[in-house]
Design goal:
Length: 407
């Protein structure tokens, strides 16, 4: 296996090389480049199995590092004019989450996964070296089926939804690759006297398409008993408060239907397909909502900014669409013409439910609990996103630590 490390910081390059040598990779198979232009030179003459790419690089060494230089390098890899040879896998990493989100939103150059760099820990190093080990296993045919897990958790984005799950005390391990484009963390939790396994992953982009693809992968490769999506959503004002947790039951695509033109103009005829969760799940969510002091305790333990309203847990319809909403007239239209009891609206749940509902037997038990962080209007902001991600994650924790042995 031949690897290219593209980074202008020797403090990161050195431990990466030492870790690769410890995995048995010959030193002459580990190449380095300290600028985007240097990386292009090497990518023209060598086909790399793995490229490890800092997302903030100088174009040439005498210039300042920038995201633009990396974006152009990836565009060149995707195109043909520069004659660059595409690697089998690119691992992008950065200390700046905004850089990762930017590249994720535009990434079109093939298989790419991401890690967050933090100089205070070596999690980034372990995660990248796990990717190296994954590629070695592929090269030598050492891949093996993943053992079935008890629970798979899907988050729409890394922050704040996935990080809220990783804050749960569930013995999370290091990053590892499930396949060449899906990073996961494995953990475990105790319910009763038994230990249960959990895998957590997040999509690279928001929306039903990405969520459906990731859910299908996890169902196929991990064979979970439960498939769950926590996270944040918009709530219907008057029915929900900031931080309130919503069990999506049912979920449907509120944009599904037919648009026809007639004498009265263009009209949309809805054709919603609703997917419900199991009554076994809903009954236990309702038990949680009625457990004296539980929700108050969850709210009290949050140390950041939080609303003054009481934390509540609801079960009810949550609509799913393909766009972020900051126009409440759309919500009003759905309430008037599709589902008058709707509690919330978001972008992924119907895709997750569809993947689980269409899976071969044994199908996973699926549900989603998302918390209200805004009301889909022009007052939309990030004030309660972290709090809402936290309340959703804590409900997931309470559900499984209390009830998984009952299924």
């Amino acid at each position: 296996m031949i690897i290219l490390i593209v980074d202008d910081n020797r403090a990161k390059i050195t431990p990466l090389i030492k870790g690769m040598l410890a995995l048995g990779i010959p030193r002459h198979n580990i190449h380095t480049a300290e600028s985007a232009s240097d990386a292009r030179l090497k990518l023209r003459i060598e086909t790399y199995d793995l490229v490890i790419l800092d997302l903030c690089l100088p174009e040439v060494m005498e210039e300042d590092p920038s995201l633009d230089a990396v974006r152009q390098l990836l565009d060149d890899l995707h195109g043909t004019e520069q004659g660059l040879r595409k690697p089998k896998l690119i691992v992008g990493f950065s200390a700046y989450e905004a850089y990762i989100l930017e590249i994720q939103s535009q990434q079109t150059c093939g298989s790419m996964v991401f890690h967050r760099y933090d100089e205070k820990t070596d999690d980034w190093l372990k995660g990248i070296l796990n990717c190296v080990q994954y590629m070695l296993d592929l090269e030598f045919g050492n891949t093996k089926d993943t053992a079935p897990v008890d629970l798979c958790i899907i988050a729409a984005l890394y922050n704040p939804e996935y990080t809220a799950i990783l804050d749960l005390p569930w013995n999370w391990g290091n990053w590892e690759l499930l396949d060449q484009s899906t990073s996961i963390r494995r953990g475990s939790f105790i319910s009763g006297n038994k230990t249960y396994s959990v895998v957590a992953a997040h999509s690279l982009r928001m929306g039903m398409v990405s969520a459906t693809i990731l859910a299908t992968k996890l169902i196929t490769l991990c064979k979970p008993r439960f498939l769950v999506m926590p996270g944040i959503c918009a709530g219907v004002p008057g029915k929900t408060n900031y931080g309130d947790v919503l069990l999506a039951n049912p979920s449907w695509d509120y944009q599904c239907g037919k648009r026809l033109s007639n004498d009265e103009g263009s009209q949309f005829y809805i054709a919603p397909h609703q997917i419900h969760v199991s009554e076994l799940v809903e009954s236990r969510i309702l038990q949680l909502s009625r457990t004296h002091g539980l929700l108050a305790k969850i709210k009290d333990e949050w140390r950041g900014e939080k609303p003054v309203t009481e934390l509540r847990l609801h079960s009810g319809p949550v609509g799913c669409g393909s766009a972020v909403l900051a126009d409440y007239t759309i919500v009003e239209d759905i309430l008037d013409n599709q589902q008058r009891t709707m509690l919330g609206i978001e972008m992924e749940i119907y895709g997750v439910y569809s993947a689980a509902n269409s899976a071969p037997e044994p199908k996973p038990i699926f549900f989603a609990v998302k918390s209200v962080c805004d009301h889909a209007d022009n007052q939309k902001n990030d004030t309660y996103q972290k709090y809402s991600a936290y309340t959703s994650a804590r409900v997931v924790q309470e559900f499984f630590e209390r009830y998984i042995s009952e299924f």
